Amino acid sequence: MPPRRPVPPWQQAVRLGAAAVVGVLLWLLTGSMLPRGCAADSCSWYVTGDPLIALGCLTAVAWRRRFPVPVALAVAVASAASALASGAALLAIGSLATRRRPAEIATVAAAFVVAPLFTTGLYPVERPPGSPWIQLVLQLLTAGVAVTTGWAVGARRAEVLSLRERALSAEREQAALADRARVLERNRIAREMHDSLAHRISLVALQAGALDHRADLADEERRVLVRGIADGSYRALEDLRDVLGVLRAEQPDRPEPPGPSWGRVPALVDDARASGMDAVLTVDATGEPPDAVGDVCYRVVREALTNAAKHAPGAPVRITLDGGSGGALGVAVRNGPAARQIARPPTSGYGLPGLAERVRAVGGTVGRHPASDGGFVLTARLPWPDESARSPRPGDEPERRPGRGVR
Question: What φ, ψ does residue 143 adopt, rounded to 5°?
Fold first, then answer.
C-alpha cells in the first residue's frame, strides 16, 4: 500500500462536513417516519442518544488515518444505533477501502450490514413484512457503494504515486546521465589537452635544448630557434584556449578546434621538422582510410613524435604509412638514439596506455620495442575496411589526402 500523505486541514473539514450533511439527511428521513408527538416518550432516543453517538462517531472519524481499522469498525457498529452517524460510517468505510486490503474491508462491511438488525427497537417505526431483508439489502448496497468508491480512490492514489515516483526516477536517471556525460567530456578534454600540449611543449623543449647544447650556432640559426620556441609556446596556448573555449558557458555555439585526422598528418610532420626535428614521412597508402582510422593514425604519429622529442632529442625520426582499402593501415615510427645526453624528462604515464586504448577501440594492434641501434620503434596496425562498394551519399565530397611519396 502506498504511504499516505498528510491531509490539509481544509480537506479534512470538507469531508467531515459532507459526512455530517449525509447523516443529517438520513436522520431527518428517519424522523419523518416516526409517529407524531413521540419525542418525549418512546422516541426520546431519536433526539438524545442518536445525536450524541453521531457526535462521537464524527470525532472518531477524524482519527481514521492513524487507526483505520479500529475507527472504521467502531463507527460501523455505532452507526446501527444512530441514523445521524450514517455519514460518518460511510466516510470511515470508504477511507478504509482506499487501503485495498480485502480482509479488513470485509470485516468492517459485515459489521456495518449486520449490526442494524439488532437495533430495530430503538425507533418505533411500523415495518412491513420482510423488512429485515429489505434493510439488509439496503445496507449491502450502501456498503458496496462506499467500498467501491474508496477502492477507486485508493487505486487512483497508487497510480498517481507510481507516476510521481517514475518521474522522480527519470529525473534522477537523467541527472546521472548528465553527470556521466560531464565526466566523459572532462576525460576527453583532459586527453586532448595531454596529447596536444605534450606534443607542443616537447617540440619547444627540443628547440630550447638545442640552444643550450649548441654553442657553435650562428646568430641566424639562434634567432630561428628562438622564434620557433616563441611560436611553439604561442601555439600551445592557442591549443589550450581552443580546447577550454568549448566549455565556456558564454560561448555555447563556439565550434570545437579541428580534431585529429588523416589529412593533418603531413602538417603534423611539417611542424616537427620546423621545430628542428629530423623527421621524414613516407606515405605508401592507396586512398584515404575511414575517419576513425585516420584519427587514430594521427594520434599514433603525434605520440611517437612527442616521445622522440622528449627522450631522444636530435635523433632522426622516420614515419611510414602503408596499406589500402580492404586490408590494414600500417603505421611505423622509428627514431634513432638520442644525439645528446639529457636528464630524464617528466612523464605522465598516460600517453602510450591511452594510445593503446584508442588503437584497440578501432580493432587494431599496437607494439613498441627498442631498436638494435639504441633507438625506439612504435608500430600500429589499423583495420581498413573496403568501402568501394558503398554507394555515395548526398553531400559526400572528396577531401585532400596526403600524397604518395616522401616528405
Answer: -65, -40
406: left (phi over 0), alpha (psi -120 to 50) or beta: beta
End-to-end CA distance of the chain: 76
What residues does 354 pair with on adjacent strands? Answer: none
Please name the amino acid found at residue 170: A
| Distance, C-alpha 347 to centroid of its chain | 36
336-337-343-348 Cα dihedral, nearest 10 degrees: 40
Which three-class secondary structure state does DSSP give residue 280? strand
Cell of 83: 441514523
pLDDT digits (tens, 9 = 90+) for 116-129: 877 776 776 666 55
What grid cell was written down for 324?
589500402
Q: Cell digits for 175?
A: 541527472
Cell of 308: 622522440
Closest to 74 in 3D by CA, of 98, 59, 17, 84: 59
Which alpha helices (DSSP H) does 214-290 contain, by range? 219-245, 265-274
d(CA 365, CA 237): 33
Q: How far apart are CA 87 and CA 57, in angstroms?
A: 9
The rounded distance, in Å, linking the Cα atoms of 365 and 382 is 7
3-state helix, strand and coil shares in percent for the chain, rounded to the nearest 5 = 60, 10, 30
| CA distance linking residue 121 with residue 182, whole number of Å | 78
CA angle 387, 388, 389 (to 5 degrees): 90
pTM of the entire structure? 0.48
Count of CB atoms situated within 10 Å of the CB of 274? 16
At 95-116, the pLDDT tens digits run: 899 988 899 899 998 998 888 8
Half-sphere exposure of 353 (CA within 13 A, CB side): 4
**H-run or E-run covering 252:** none
Q: β-pairing, 279-286 with 317-324?
A: parallel
Distance, CA of 264 to CA of 38 (rounded, Å): 109
Q: Which neighbouring-strand residues pair with 378?
A: 333, 368
What would the grid cell of residue 47 be?
A: 433526539
Task: In whole angstroms, give the CA distance from residue 84 to residue 96.
Answer: 20
DSSP assignment, residue 147?
H
